[in-house]
Amino acid sequence: MASPSPGAHYDGPPSSWITSDSRALLAAIWSQKLTALVLGPSLAVVLWLFIADYTSPLKRYPGPFLARWTNLYRWWQVYKGNYAPHIKKLHEKYGPVVRLGPNMLDIDLPELSRVIYGTVGWAKSDMYTVNSPLVNGKLLSNIFSEVDPAQHAKMKRPVVRHYSVSAVQALEPQVDSVLTDLLSLLQRRYVEKEQACDVGEWLNFFAWDFMGMVTMSHTYGFLEKGSDIDNVLANNVKLVDYFGLIGQLTWVDYLLDKNPIHSFGPSGIPSVVRFTVEKLTARTKGEDKHYTPDRPDFMQYFLETKKTHPDLVDDAGVTAYMLVNLLAGADTVSIVFQALFYYMLKNPRVYARLSAEVRTAFQPFQLAPYAQARALPYLEAVVHETLRYNPSISMALERVVPPGGLRLPDGSVVPGGKTVGMNPYVIGRNRGVFGEDADEYKPERWLRGEGEGEEEYKERMRRWWESMLVFGGGSRICLGRHVAMMEMYKVVATLVASFDFELEDPEKPWQICARWFIWPKGIVCKLRPRKD
Ligand code: HEM
């Protein structure tokens, strides 16, 4: 019998070599090997999952089955785009504490908001680091994304005074100039031409141009163009969605956006970055034609900070503060505006009462001064109710439990190192705080009730605001909340005093996509000159 020589063709042993007995034997050996190969690791994984679940200190907290083992459950809910409403349903099913991941609890206990957001030592979770780019191998955090409380305090200290009520009131002329543009564009394009107007889209253009104006005395030009420019708005949605999605699986960020070989992350908004840097360069060279010292803006405030805190703020720091303003302040306000117009127009009672109040105070096309607008009680009620009912943020504001743990009202203790968070949407609809009708849009709840004493009313308002997390809380509370309030009061009062609005199809609901933000779409209206 010739053995096959190296390199020669070999057809295998003659079939007569393999008897049926040896075939059966071979098959048995292979099936044993396969069984060992497949079943062994599978059993090990199942055992590991069982042990991980059994020994987890969070095992007592209820939640969806898959969430006990993987954050993919949360990722999937974000991906589906109905996050906040879904989490609310989970709380209705499981109670105030829901386990949303192997190490994460979503908590609907407003009485704990002061503890989680208002006490020292509660760091933001690593979800936020997705928001910090990797530069030369180091995370470049910003005032929103920094997770270390001490580092965050260093970033906040130099700029916090520029967001105070008085600093913000000094920006009012900047608001007026963009508001004037909005009014005349709506008048020319829609009222005079009797065309249906996608009000949501225009409020979004306004919110972005407004942030450009208060930040660098120059708009990006969305209103003038009447559309997106360089895909800034579309890419920004991708950027924010990436944060919401990959924030659930932070390690994936190192395979995608922070991949050292090639980044697969979202493209970002390079033209906005370029525009911001150009404006800053022009200002520092004294060549900025749009800036006059009698109309301050945030860039000027931040440049002052560079002088007062040279150890903490350089040009890159000024650019970062400006960019965070744009990214944190445009979409958030735009979403609340859109929700306010949608719910106001869906509820004729609300629209009638608001327009009666506003029209008594302001003439058509009069730019409502902030001080006067915020003195209108029903307008205030509508703004507060919209913030409660439809906060811009759809996800929990995650924090890491400090080493001492978190004691829950049932006596259990969530150990240090675990992640907990409250969702502004869920908390805003908590029946224990806002009443059995918390799921209804009803601005009247913010007015003083019949028979309610002044002190009692003030105490209720204090309690409600303390519970609501629409602007976050404690040392990480939204820096721009006074800016947002000024913008909302002035814009709503001015628009409602100027035009009659009517939904083009009152039966057609808007569409929302709830990931990190609750993106609205489809608020198409007929606009007419104000009748009375
Ligand atoms: C209705 C509008 C707004 C809403 C609902 C809102 C909401 C929030 C929330 C919930 C946080 C805290 C996030 C967390 O703890 O994870 C936050 C932080 C922040 N917001 Fe706003 N925001 C709004 C408008 C603005 C505006 C207009 C600006 C800029 C002028 C702004 C700038 C910031 C900044 C800089 C932070 C980070 C603060 C820090 O960590 O120290 N926001 N915002």
Automatic annotation (TrEMBL):
Its cofactor is heme. This is Cytochrome P450 monooxygenase. The keyword Metal-binding applies. Keywords: Heme, Iron, Membrane, Metal-binding, Monooxygenase, Oxidoreductase, Transmembrane, Transmembrane helix. InterPro entries: Cyt_P450, Cyt_P450_CS, Cyt_P450_E_grp-I, Cyt_P450_sf, Cytochrome_P450_monoxygenase. The lineage of its organism: Eukaryota, Fungi, Dikarya, Ascomycota, Pezizomycotina. The chain crosses the membrane at residues 34-51, 320-345. CDD domains: CYP57A1-like. The keyword Repressor does not apply. Belongs to the cytochrome P450 family. SUPFAM superfamilies: Cytochrome P450 (SSF48264). It comes from Remersonia thermophila. PANTHER family: CYTOCHROME P450, P450, PUTATIVE (EUROFUNG)-RELATED. It holds the Pfam family p450. It comes from the Eukaryota.
